Structure to design on (353 residues):
């Protein structure tokens, strides 16, 4: 197999050198060039035709987000965002992921000096990803297209979702179709710390339910969606005066903290058959064992299908483990969840002989 050819784009020579040094430790990757700003990057892409580019957000002359928008429209290229852990950088990164960036990684910092540990694997996964998936039309977030609230009455079941690479667009596609009184929902999305805060705020603006980062002891109620804070603790649910969020400091599981497996296992234990599990696009196998525990506890389980997944890694692992009750394309997952958690649907199922 030919090495993956990478172009690094960053206004900092130090950061370009660090990205290059990290990637060149992998024999399957070759850094073929670098650029200090989008204008240099444009010329380098034409000249070098890289498989993947790494792209900084905050740069002179043109920021990375504006460059990415032009790039995905005129010459779609697999792109990984390398962003600073600032609120401004996180907000722009979320927009970049919606625009067509493959994934994001935080620049090393005192808090997370090893943030680049997944960069090489991310680059190789990006090189194998479908360009057609990356340039697919953004999710329809028209509120007018949502199901009227009076057609949905939550039956008390809790929804747990897990996602990774490609999850930003997938979650937006699902939650934008949720009514204001949606089923109580908890989500673990693999994402660096601070990025999840910006992501939750953006979802809250675009969707009818209230979307927040999870906090310790927060009640999990209809009309509310909780996102696991990135990089700090595992999100679990506990049964105490209904269901509540619990943030637990513990080692990484499957290389992730928060881990989808941890969330799903806690849901299996606390809610059993009173839950719905959903595994979405992403690399690796996080969530497969936890979803199997959910299914064995009587929960309904849904996996995103291969055709609509940017990376059919986590959904494949869960499906092959026997954890997925049914596979559904992305555009049908919201409806599937709502049908499973609607009082009217429950009555219809009970009425069937």
């Amino acid at each position: 197999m030919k090495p993956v050819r990478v172009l690094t784009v960053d206004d900092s020579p130090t950061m370009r050198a660090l990205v290059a040094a990290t990637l060149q430790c992998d024999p399957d990757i070759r850094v073929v060039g670098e650029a200090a700003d989008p204008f240099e990057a444009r010329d380098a892409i034409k000249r070098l035709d890289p498989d993947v580019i790494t792209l900084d957000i905050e740069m002179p002359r043109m920021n990375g987000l504006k460059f990415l928008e032009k790039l995905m429209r005129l010459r779609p290229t697999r792109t990984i965002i390398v962003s600073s852990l600032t609120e401004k950088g996180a907000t722009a990164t979320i927009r970049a992921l919606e625009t067509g960036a493959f994934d994001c990684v935080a620049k090393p910092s005192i808090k997370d000096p090893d943030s680049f540990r997944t960069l090489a694997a991310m680059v190789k996964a990006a090189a194998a990803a479908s360009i057609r998936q990356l340039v697919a039309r953004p999710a329809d977030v028209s509120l007018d297209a949502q199901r009227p609230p009076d057609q949905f009455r939550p039956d008390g079941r809790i929804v747990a979702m897990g996602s990774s690479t490609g999850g930003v667009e997938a979650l937006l596609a699902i939650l934008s179709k949720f009514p204001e009184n949606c089923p109580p929902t908890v989500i673990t999305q693999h994402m660096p710390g601070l990025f999840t805060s910006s992501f939750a705020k953006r979802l809250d603006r675009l969707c009818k339910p209230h979307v927040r980062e999870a906090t310790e002891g927060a009640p999990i109620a209809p009309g509310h969606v909780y996102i696991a804070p990135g990089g700090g603790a595992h999100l679990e649910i506990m049964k105490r005066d209904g269901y509540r969020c619990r943030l637990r400091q513990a080692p990484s599981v499957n290389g992730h903290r928060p881990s989808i497996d941890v969330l799903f296992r806690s849901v299996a234990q606390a809610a059993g058959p009173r839950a719905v599990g959903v595994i979405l696009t992403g690399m690796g196998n996080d969530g497969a064992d936890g979803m199997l525990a959910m299914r064995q506890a009587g929960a309904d389980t849904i996996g995103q299908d291969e055709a609509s997944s940017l990376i059919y890694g986590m959904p494949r692992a869960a499906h092959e483990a026997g954890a997925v009750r049914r596979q559904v394309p992305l555009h049908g997952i919201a409806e599937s969840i709502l049908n499973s958690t609607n009082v009217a649907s429950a009555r219809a199922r009970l009425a069937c002989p």
User: Anything to note?
Assistant: The chain has 13 helices and 14 strands.
